[in-house]
Specification:
The protein has one domain: Spore Coat Polysaccharide Biosynthesis Protein SpsA, Chain A (Alpha-Beta Complex). The strands form two sheets. Strands 1, 4, 5, 6, 7, 8, 9 and 10 form an eight-stranded mixed sheet that branches. A two-stranded antiparallel ribbon has the order 2-3. The protein is of the alpha/beta class. Its cofactor is Mg(2+). It catalyses: Mo-molybdopterin + GTP + H(+) = Mo-molybdopterin guanine dinucleotide + diphosphate.
């Protein structure tokens, strides 16, 4: 299984690179890498700004989007091209509440991708989180076709393939998948106000 960290966004609402925001003194992207590394065969980062990522160890490859400006789906298509595993643990770099137990519980469901499903994504309190999910590389041609049709929504991919929604609500008392898009989001998270 391969860990894919998506960090290709513009951070336009934040006004500064989200992947470099500090959580407990560690940049978000490095914090995410540290969560994935112990349980993945390899980690890969998709980023159009590798010059920002000096804290990432040299053994972690960093690839730019094959076609910039296609959002997370474009990053996933790039990841599927460069991946060496069939099962990809895809996660956005802006989830400051993500913990090792979440990663492990998702990984425990990876065998469901062998025959039954193409995608396993968590749902917390009714909200789906396709950017902390497992994807089988067999969805690559379909994802590429979506981009060629100008369809970049993650749910175009999920709705078009065999996807399993894992209800993680009972497993975690607060939302471990929350992401931060604005300075207000970041401030609220730092104060413990976002759940």
């Amino acid at each position: 299984m391969e860990g894919i960290i998506l960090a290709g966004g513009h951070s336009s609402r934040m006004g500064q690179p989200k992947e470099l925001l500090l959580v407990e003194g560690v940049p978000l992207i490095e914090r995410t890498r540290r969560l994935l590394t112990p349980v993945m065969d390899r980690c890969v980062i998709i980023s159009n700004h590798p010059e920002r990522l000096k804290m990432i160890p040299n053994e972690v490859p960093i690839y730019p989007d094959d076609i910039p400006g296609q959002g997370p789906l474009g990053g996933i298509v790039t990841a599927m091209r460069v991946a060496t595993s069939d099962i990809l643990f895809v996660v956005a770099c802006d989830m400051p509440a993500l913990e090792a137990d979440v990663v492990l519980q998702l990984c425990d469901r990876a065998s469901m991708l062998e025959k039954e499903y193409d995608i396993i994504y968590p749902v917390w309190s009714g909200r789906a989180h396709p950017l902390c999910a497992l994807y089988h590389r067999r969805v690559w041609p379909f994802a590429e076709a979506l981009l060629k049709d100008g369809r970049r929504r993650m749910f175009d991919l999920i709705d078009g393939r065999r996807a399993f929604a894992w209800d993680a609500t009972l497993s975690f008392p607060t939302d471990p998948f929350c992401n931060i898009n604005t300075v207000q989001d970041y401030d609220e998270f730092q104060k413990g106000e976002r759940v």
